[in-house]
C-alpha cells in the first residue's frame, strides 16, 4: 500500500509539474501578442528595437561623416598625434610641433594632389586627341569631331549627370565647347585650357588645329603624332617612377628609424620621452636630431627629385 501511494503521489506531482510548465509556456506565448497589440493601440513612442536600430544608424552615419572628413582633411591628424605625445610626455612641446607641422603637411598634401591632378590631365588630353582622331577618321568636320569627343568624355566620366562641366579640360572646357559648337576661335580656347595643370598638350593640339585650318594640313595625322608623344612621355615617367620607388622606400625607412628607436626605448622602460622633453641634454639631443632629420630628408628628396628631373 505504501508503494502504491508513493507511485500515485509521484504521478500527481509529475502531472502538476507538466501543467505548470504548459501554463508558463502558454503565458509566454500569449504575452508577445498582447504587448504588440498594446503597442499598436497606444503607439505614443517607437518600439525599443526600432529605437535601437535608429541609434545604430545614427552612429553609423556619424562614423561615415567622421571618416569622410578625415580623408578630406588628413593634415588634421597631426593634432591628435601631438595631443597623445603631449599627454605621454607631460610636455607642451609636442603641441607646438603639431601646430608647426600642420601647415607643412597641408602644403605637402596639396602638392601631391596637384601632381595627381596633372597626371590625370595628361591622360585626359591624350584620350581627347585619340577621340578627335577617331571622329575625324569617321568623316566628321573638325569642330563637330571635337564637340562629339568632349561630349563622350562627359558621358564616360559621369559628370553629365552631376552637372560637372570640367571633366577633361578643367574650367576652360565650356569655352572650348562654345568655340567648337558656334565656330569660334578653337585654338585660342585650347591654349587657354592648356594653362591648367597637366594640360600642356592642348597647346600642341591648338598648333595642329591652327596649321590644319590655315594651311590645309591633315589634322588627324598631327593629332595622332601628338597623342603618341603624350603617351610615350607618360610611359617614360611611369618607368622612371618605378625605378625610383626603391630610393623613396629607403628614404621613408631612414626617416622612420628615430621613431622606431623611441618605441624600442619605451618598450625597454627607458622613458625616452621624459628624457627628451624634461632634461637639458634630452632637449639638446632633440633639437640636433630634429635638425639632422630635416636636413637628411631634404637632401634625400633633392637627390631623388634630381633623378626625376633628369
What does this protein look like?
The protein has 310 residues and is mostly helical. The N and C termini lie far apart (114 Å). Mean pLDDT is 75; it is low at 1-13, 25-32, 40-45 and 158-167. It is built from twelve helices and no strands. Helix 4 crosses helix 5, helix 5 packs antiparallel against helix 7 (173-182) and helix 10 (219-267) packs antiparallel against helix 12 (280-309). The protein is elongated. The chain crosses the membrane at residues 12-29, 76-101, 244-269, 281-300. Its main location: membrane. InterPro entries: T2SS_GspF_dom. Residues 166-263 form the Type II secretion system protein GspF domain.
| Beta-strand fraction estimate | under 5%
What is the rounded Rg? 36 Å
Low-confidence stretches: 1-13, 25-32, 40-45, 158-167
Q: What is the SS-derived class?
A: mainly alpha
Task: Name the average pLDDT.
Answer: 75
In summary, what is this structure?
The chain is built from 12 helices and no strands.
Give the secondary structure arrangement, pairings included:
Blueprint: H1 2-41, H2 48-72, H3 78-89, H4 93-137, H5 142-157, H6 159-162, H7 173-182, H8 186-193, H9 201-215, H10 219-267, H11 272-278, H12 280-309
Transmembrane segments: 12-29, 76-101, 244-269, 281-300
Domain Type II secretion system protein GspF: 166-263
Pfam family, one: T2SSF
Give structural attributes.
310 residues; mainly alpha; 84% helix; elongated; cell membrane; Type II secretion system F family protein; T2SS_GspF_dom
Amino acid at each position: 500500500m505504501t508503494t502504491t501511494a508513493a507511485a500515485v503521489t509521484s504521478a500527481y506531482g509529475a502531472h502538476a509539474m507538466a501543467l505548470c510548465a504548459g501554463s508558463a509556456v502558454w503565458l509566454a506565448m500569449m504575452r508577445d501578442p498582447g504587448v504588440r497589440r498594446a503597442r499598436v493601440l497606444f503607439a505614443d513612442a517607437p518600439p525599443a528595437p526600432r529605437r535601437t536600430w535608429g541609434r545604430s544608424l545614427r552612429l553609423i552615419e556619424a562614423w561615415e561623416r567622421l571618416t569622410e572628413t578625415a580623408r578630406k582633411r588628413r593634415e588634421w591628424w597631426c593634432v591628435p598625434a601631438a595631443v597623445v605625445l603631449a599627454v605621454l610626455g607631460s610636455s607642451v612641446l609636442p603641441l607646438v610641433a603639431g601646430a608647426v607641422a600642420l601647415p607643412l603637411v597641408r602644403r605637402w598634401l596639396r602638392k601631391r594632389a596637384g601632381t595627381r591632378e596633372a597626371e590625370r590631365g595628361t591622360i585626359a588630353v591624350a584620350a581627347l586627341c585619340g577621340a578627335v582622331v577617331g571622329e575625324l577618321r569617321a568623316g566628321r568636320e573638325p569642330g563637330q569631331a571635337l564637340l562629339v569627343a568632349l561630349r563622350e568624355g562627359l558621358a564616360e566620366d559621369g559628370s553629365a549627370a552631376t552637372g560637372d562641366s570640367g571633366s577633361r579640360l578643367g574650367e576652360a572646357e565650356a569655352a572650348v565647347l562654345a568655340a567648337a559648337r558656334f565656330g569660334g576661335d578653337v585654338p585660342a580656347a585650347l591654349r587657354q585650357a592648356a594653362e591648367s595643370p597637366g594640360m600642356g598638350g592642348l597647346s600642341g593640339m591648338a598648333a595642329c588645329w591652327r596649321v590644319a585650318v590655315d594651311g590645309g594640313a591633315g589634322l588627324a595625322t598631327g593629332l595622332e603624332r601628338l597623342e603618341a608623344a603624350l603617351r610615350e612621355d607618360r610611359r617614360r615617367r611611369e618607368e622612371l617612377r618605378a625605378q625610383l620607388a626603391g630610393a623613396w622606400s629607403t628614404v621613408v625607412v631612414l626617416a622612420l628609424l628615430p621613431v622606431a628607436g623611441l618605441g624600442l626605448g619605451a618598450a625597454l622602460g627607458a622613458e625616452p620621452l621624459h628624457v627628451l622633453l624634461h632634461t637639458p641634454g634630452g632637449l639638446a639631443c632633440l633639437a640636433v636630431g630634429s635638425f639632422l632629420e630635416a636636413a637628411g630628408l631634404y637632401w634625400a628628396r633633392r637627390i631623388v627629385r634630381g633623378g626625376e628631373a633628369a
